[in-house]
Amino acid sequence: MPCCPGLSDSGATNEPDAAMALVEKCAQLPLALRIAAERAAARPRVPLSDFVADLADGHHRLEVLRADEDPHTAVRVVFSWSYRHLSRQVAQTFRCLGLHPGRSIDTYATAALVDVPVHEAEHVLESLLRAHLAEETEQNRFTMHDLLRAYAADLASEVDSLEARRAALSRAFEYYLNVAARAMDVLFPDEHDLRPQAPDWAGSAPRFDDQAAAAAWLETERPNLMAVAAHAADNGWPGHVFRLSALLWRFLDSRAYRDDALALNTHALIAARDLGPKHEARAESHLGTVYNQLRRYSEALRHLRRALALAHSAHDHETQSNALCNIGVTHELLGNYQEALEHLNQAVALARDTGGTVPECRAENQLGRLYLRLRRYDDALPHFERALVCARQAAHRTLESRIQTNIATAYIAIGRHVEADEHLRRAVVLARETGSRESSIRAAAQRGILYAVTGRHDDASHYLDRALTLAAGLGDKALEADVLNSFGEAAQHAATADLAVDYHRQSLDLATMIGDRHQQARAHDGLARAFRVLGRSSDSARHDQQALGLFAALGIPRDE
After folding, report:
1. Does 206 share its domain with 255?
2. Cα–chain-centroid distance for residue 484?
3. Residue where a domain terminates, one of 210, 240, 275
4. CA–CA gap between residue 277 and residue 214 (Å, rounded)
5. 50: domain range?
6. What is the C-alpha separation between 278 and 196, in angstroms, rounded?
7. Is there a contact between 262 and 289 (Cβ–Cβ < 8 Å)?
8. Nearest alpha carbon to residue 558 among 531, 498, 518
9. How far apart are CA 109 and CA 175, in angstroms?
């Protein structure tokens, strides 16, 4: 028997997945299924999957599922049988839930949306559950089927004034901004002064007793926060979008939610154009940084150069310095080291002249990292030391963790192993406290290198394996290629040249795919050395020439 009454056996049998999708989109309502089946049967040459695709939009679906021959049997009427028995407050809540842009909602956000105490929201939601107009997905978290959500939104547009609808959404948006800000203050307290001030909120809201609770709320609400940003951008809340982007920047960055960061900052840029050149400059800078992380360098440079011009016209020295710094980073990633040096030096000078402690910290750290790449360790260390002073002045623990790792990297290279270990231990503690995955990966990788060069090969393998697992989970191919090369170099120290070949080959594949010439050079160099140990002289010579050419093009002296 077909799963949808009225569908031919062949229709349901030939497209079982489409048939099940049809059941889901009809909310398993017998009337809706009958209407859908009759529509599909009337067009036997059209694949069932095409009909399902036509039902993708909830509002359009209500119209498609209207029974033309009998308007009284429309799906809306079925819903109205439950809706018309609701009390005034429960009916109002149902309509407001149709306005909410996210897929699910908790009791606190419901209370904000309807402007009632949270205990009243709980009772109202229980009434909607009993009426089968909502469902509880987990404790104190609720959702509605797309058809019901569309029906509720249509009712809201018919019953409630535009002013009332916007007031409901404004309350919800302000609630999300306030709670997101408080969660970020718990999770990243060192950046409190760098984030915009959230609106006051006098209503009920969750409390965060520790970082785990704050992180859990942000993870759970992340889809809603993204949906709020999209809705606010499209419907006239530009300030909310811009503040949400600035509030969530570090969270999305630390968890490597690149797609969310791209979407959110794209919305923020559109919104910022209504807020003036200073806001637009910051949005352009953030978006350029996201494109850097996505290794889309031409787009990154376009947005960062636009940010620089806007910031200059708005006399926003902090954004100017950050844009110069990020342009330098982009050129570094492209292997254009001279241009990178010029932009990073400009960023440092501007930050020093204008007293921007955090911009100076970032620029000094990036300049030191570039000197690390160029193997100019004595030049790198003074920049890291200055960056470390600035990070501590600003109480910026995320930046301090990265700087501590960079200092350790320089010390490992020049043989100061005890001091390197001290800095790495501090870096690991800070990375754990701030929840920065990238900082954790880089610190773990450098501990692996330190233990490899000091003969603790089992410890080296443990830390590098941890770094590689985390890097793969992060989705950052450049970082993964870096760790793979480090693993290959550690294998060389452990006299396991065959393993070194395997790691360097994997790194070379990744680095070639993303166009990272520095990691390509490291991989070819490692392969040349490993093949030499294995007695494969022709393979060694081939990779040796590749490494020499890349190092020369990058202006990096090759270690002997």
Report:
1. yes
2. 24
3. 275
4. 33
5. 9-78
6. 14
7. no
8. 518
9. 7
In this structure, what CATH number is given to the domain that contains residue 503? Answer: 1.25.40.10
Among residues 50, 78, 106, which one ends one of the domains?
A: 78
Residues 68 and 122 in one domain: no
Inside any domain, residue 32: yes
pLDDT tens-digit readout, 190-229: 788 878 888 889 888 999 999 899 999 999 999 999 999 9
Of the candidate ranges 117-121, 355-359, 521-525, the one whose mean pLDDT is the lowest: 355-359
CATH number at residue 145: 1.10.10.10
* Number of domains within the chain: 4
* pLDDT band, very low/low/confident/very high, at 473 (cuts 50, 70, 90): confident
How far is Cα 93 from Cα 171, in angstroms, rounded to an integer?
A: 14
The predicted-structure confidence for 124-141, as pLDDT tens digits, reads as follows: 999 999 888 898 988 889
111 and 135 in a common domain:
yes
Query: What is the b/e burial string over 238-274, where b = at least 16 CB atoms within 10 angstroms of the residue's CB?
Result: bbbbbbbbbbbbbbbbbbbbbebbbbbbbbbbbbbee
Q: Is 396 exposed, middle or buried (0-12, 13-18, 19+ CB in 10 A)?
A: buried
Enter the tokens of residue 535. Answer: 């007695």
Q: Give a yes or no: residue 448 inside a domain.
A: no
Residue 19 makes CB contacts below 8 A (sequence gap 6+) with 2, 3, 4, 7, 11, 12, 48
| Cα–Cα distance for residue pair 438/406, rounded to 1 Å | 13
Which candidate, 413, 412, 439, 410, places its Cα nearest to that of 426? 439
In angstroms, rounded to a whole number, what is the distance separating the alpha carbons of residues 559 and 536? 21
In a domain? residue 217: yes
256 and 172 in a common domain: yes
Residue 125 has which token pair? 């939601």
Tokens 């570090």, residue? 250
pLDDT tens for each residue of 77-102 = 557 767 888 999 999 999 999 999 99
Position 347 confidence tier, pLDDT thresholds 50, 70, 90: very high
Q: Are residues 36 and 115 in the same domain?
A: no
What are 226-254's pLDDT values in tens digits?
Answer: 999 999 999 999 999 999 999 999 899 87
Residue 136's SS3 state is: strand
User: 245 and 178, same structural domain?
Assistant: yes
Global model pTM greater than 0.70: yes
How far is C-alpha 220 from the chain's CA centre? 14
Task: State the alpha helices, DSSP H only, in 71-210.
Answer: 75-83, 88-99, 107-114, 118-130, 146-159, 162-187
179 and 218 assigned to the same domain: yes
b/e map 130-153, b = 16+ CB within 10 Å: eeebbeeeeebebbbbbbbbbbbb
Q: Same domain for 209 and 246?
A: yes
How far apart CA 336 and CA 366 sit, in angstroms, is 14
Q: How far apart are CA 217 and CA 141, in angstroms?
A: 12
Q: Does 399 map to a domain?
A: no
